[in-house]
Amino acid sequence: MTAAVAITGLGAVSGLGLGADALWQGLVSGQTALRARVEGDALGIGALPLSLVPLPTEAGELAEDLSAQVLCSPAPRATRMSVLAASEAWRDAGLGSFGAQGVPPANRRIGVCLGTTHGEKAPWLAALRRGSIAPPTDAHGPAIPAQVLAAAVGAGRVLVPVAACASGNVALAAALDWIRSGRCDVVLCGGCDALSDFVLRGFQSLRALSPGACKPFDVTRSGLSLGEGAAFLVLESPQHAQARGARVRAVLSGAGQSCDANHMTGPDREGRGAARAMCAALLDAGVTPAEIDFVSAHGTATIFNDQMEGRAIALVFADRAASVPVHSVKGALGHSMGAASALEAVVCVRALEEHRVPATIGLQDPDPAIPLRLVQGSALSLPLRHILSTASGFGGLNAAVVLSSAMRVPGNAAPGVTQKVQP
Amino acid sequence: MRPATLPTLAAAIALFPSNDTPLAALLPTGAKTATEQLARLDRLCGLAVVGSEGCLARLEPTWRDQAAQTAVFCGSRDGCLATDTAFFRGVQNGEASPRLFAYTLHSAPVGAVSIQHGLLGPGATVIGSQVAGLQALEEATLLLSSGRARACLVLSCDLAWSPGIDAVAALYLTSQPASLIGYSTWKILDIHSFFVAEQPDIALSRALAALHQRVPQSAAALAVSTSGPPLATLAALLDEPSTVHPQLNDPSQSCVVITSQDAQGYAAAAVIGRDHGVS
Q: Tell me, what's the ipTM?
């Protein structure tokens, strides 16, 4: 077991609205952001349900009638989403202004770690539409959102890791290492991805999209729904957080990763890769499967993913597999790719604080071939100490994290937590 | 802060083929990858697989004993944007290719290499900067120090955008003594990446000064600044006997410092030392 790291700030933008609170309140009240959009018709692939972020300056257009043209506009959408979510997390952590910090010293001990699948692709796609065949310039780089955030917080270290749809958790894992190794005192970490026709067409070509809103773990599930978003967490060493009197909302106890080494687009059918990542995270956290109170699943609602996850959870939890609560937020948020597991980490922190688990939206008739205790219908109240959150992506890449109650930090009384427990 | 456990570089290779060179021609004798398998990959993944084959071929077969705990980290400035372009042209023509879409993720080379060699440890690609390869090397070092993997194959690959030279580097790091598994006598002494919004040269100078302080005083250091993919330069240096820098063949030249920076403000410095006599 190695040291846990404090989580002192949260920020998110999702189809449920702007802010971590909008995300949490939307989920626990059973809302969904998935709505049939005209983009699908414009692209000739039907009125697909999508979960789009209502960015402030586009709120009117984005609400209901966004055209494919607007959806794929050159506006740096991923960057704007990232700035909104990251600035919220920064403010939430009480770290001061979020803006140009000037020239940071070389030994600046603030880091930015942004997981993504595509980063900021809009300017480059726009250039391609104009017929450009030139190589991407720096302004088209996928790392733009991370660079903007780094300038805003004066980060001396920036990383943009890509591990397909597990990128958010991989960013958390890297940030965890930076804090543990002493490279950084504070890390702004998370994930972002914006929707585009590039992504829609890609998943359509794989025949992975559900014609209706996706139904994670349902026996009638027929594929995933796409979404977008950004989510960030502020990580600090407990000592650093304590020294500046920061509120510790939860802790990141451990992380684990694995490769299936099996197929470029399909998971290991038996769930062995995902199970290895989960076991590695538990080992890193010094937490046993028996101590996990809830599993935040990847739960994309594809036939193979959900089946794979059921088997992976069975491998890890053995006799407890049918009793540990499991949910997926994809039925409410769609699959937001590189942002997905970062959004789920924000949800997990709120769950640890509130001792509530949102229901799996879209799940009506659980697949009997996946014998899990799926949270459905309405939010579940239960005492929560440790949560396992898992993600998997193309290339067979898996990443899992263990998030724990703030009470795991020595000396952190986490006032009010016990009073909120509803049996 | 230096990692608690210094991983050993057991083998390294760098290849700089022109971008019209068939990748199959670069496979080493006895490679596991068949020509037909390479043909199914996009060029970036193919380049990564070829580099990995060249590196792993230099190891003792016992490396496979730890394949289940071997990670794959890749660094790339532009990643798969070339394949993205090809896919997007298909989208515009109404013929989106599911085969190509699988390779429109920057992490595709990690998946392809792990599949090819049965590597089951962690994996990710670092993108967006000239020093992405060195950043991947740093992340691999941290990972090995944390004990979450026992070995790591670190790759750096980038494609030329017009007729030109592709670049791939592959380094095999292990927490075991190098003599058990490879040929290299080099060890990572320190590696740090930096991000500075302005004046990266000033920050890098400070960083290098700090790094030099940690290098054993008796060591003669060969500092190499590079404007190309720095991990490829590093691998070429360590691919003994070095033809790029013959000074490295002199055992008294016991350290090498690789530095690089790019216009976006990314910079990195790695200090590599002889495996003997340093700690």
A: 0.90
